[in-house]
Amino acid sequence: MDKSAHCKDVYAHFGLALYSAQCLEQAMIHFILMLDHFPKATPEFTTKKQWYEDFDKFIDTENKRTMGQLLGRLQKLGIPCEQLEIKLKEALKKRNWLAHSYFPDRAMEFMNETGRNKMIVELQQVDQFFMRLDEEISAIYAQIANKYGVTDDVLNKTMNELLVKSQSDL
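Request: output the structure for the sequence above.
Response:
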């Protein structure tokens, strides 16, 4: 096997795992949006312009938080089940390990093909963990969003408009 390509494979799987962690963070933000912003903003809704401004301000504020801070916000707002809270705590540990310690912890394994193969499997498992948790959280906040009229149809229409606007080639 080409060693350079194999190393690039490890980096690609690492990047994908961190990407999935970021997707999970966005799911956490959407969950917070439904638990905190919507219940407060909906009764005070006056104009579309004000709604968009308040929405953007809320999202901007939450996007500046770390995953640990987002978890703290969710704990204060009330995570609906203990098992989900346990998984989110585990996700925080895994995310921080990836971002801060993964390659130093795996320096010896990275030096040979067998070790790199183990790293790839490990990174795939971490990626899958983040993706499953993202789906679990997304399903919960989607139920709340439906109560506010933010249905799958509304989200799909918005997504399609954004894709056209971005001139996406994906």
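The two ends are 30 Å apart (CA to CA).
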